[in-house]
Amino acid sequence: MRLPLLAVILLSATAASAAPSYGPELEGFDYPYPVKRHAFASQGQDLSMAYMDVTPERPNGRTVVLLHGKNFCAATWGDTVGVLARAGYRVLALDQVGFCKSSKPAGYQFSFQQLATNTHGLLASLGIKEATIVGHSMGGMLAARYALMFPDAVEQLVMVDPLGLEDWQAKGVPYQTIDAAYAAERRTNAASIKAYQLKFYYDGQWKPAYDRWVEMQAGLYAGPGAERVAWNQAQTSDMVFTQPVVHEFDRLRVPTVLMVGTKDRTAPGANRAAPALAETLGRYDRLGPEVAGRIKGARLVTFEGLGHAPQVEAPDRFHEALLREVAAR
Asked: What is the structure's pLDDT at 8?
């Protein structure tokens, strides 16, 4: 059932006060598969990355690594993990440092290079020398950076509605300090999360199934680790805004698939831009073909009528396309 915009806004206001509370590492929120931990030292701190590692009954010898978006977690890939595993792939779904069930470090220098290095270390610890890397949203930016840094470890790159198909700062979106971002993050609740996703992710159409993912995120902001969660989120917002990868897409040398929903309008910072500029940002229907044309040999998959999270909005359509593209590497 799809709910009209006004109804969703009213329900969002009610839901804000009823949001669950989860621990700083998402304690209390269940993942669809057992969660393991990769312990390592980074920037003078002992940290750990949470991940799910699912082995298929009939292995085909290939591994797929799933990287989450900024407002998502490894759990959001739950259905995708099952689909890929049933098709014979070993599947890893990771939580990056600063997110979800992984460590929330203090004084950490977040960069896509650092997160890619952390990810590469986890895979090396498991003896995985080569994998198909699938990244969604912010995870798409990270996947691209990973492929640029470790091309020999990437069998195939799949970017699903990735952030960073345009350089918002270069286009004139004003910078926001980490302090200002932190203040905004501290005001985040279920209502604001749902309103943002409704506008940018789902083209004004809401399904009750999306509520679980709003609660997952809102529960971190409502829990005992809220201050550290908000600070890490502010830091990673700065990372996304100031570390574009779009200027380096022509350097990619791995088989690449770009998947975009034609209704996706995600553009971090668009709320700070002048209205005339904001209207031009996040046009994935235009950005998809433009960027795919800059990546040698890239294949473009468009999901007509879908928004920023096709694996959530239309899982059957998404999984059919993903299985086809991964098999055709």
From this structure: 44
Q: What is the pLDDT of residues 203-220, one digit of tens each?
A: 889 999 999 999 999 999
Domain-located, residue 198? yes
Count of domains for the chain:
1
Token pair of 155 as six digits: 């069998």
Is 170 contained in some domain?
yes
Q: Is 245 helix (H, G, I), strand (E, B) or coil?
A: coil
Round the average pLDDT of the chain to a whole number and report it.
94
pTM of the model: 0.94
- In which band, very low, low, confident or very high, does the pLDDT at 5 lie, cut at 50, 70 and 90? very low
- Does residue 242 form part of some domain? yes
Q: What is the DSSP string of 264-306?
A: ----TTGGGS-HHHHTTTT-HHHHHHHHHTTSTT-EEEEETT-
Backbone φ and ψ for 195, nearest 5 degrees, come out as: -65, -40
Beta-bridge partner residues of 51: 36, 94
Q: What is the CATH number of the domain that holds 315?
A: 3.40.50.1820
Label residues 214-246 b or e (16+ Cβ within 10 Å = b).
bbbbbbbbbbebbebbbbbbbbbbbbbbeebbb
pLDDT of residue 18: 61
Strands 131-136 and 299-303, sheet pairing: unpaired
The CA distances from residue 208 to 8, 15, 167, 313, 325, in Å, are 10, 12, 33, 11, 29
- Per residue in 317-329, pLDDT (tens digit) is 999 999 999 999 8
Q: Answer yes or no: is 227 within a domain.
A: yes
Name the residue range of residue 70's domain. Answer: 35-328
Closest CA to 136 of 70, 209, 235: 70
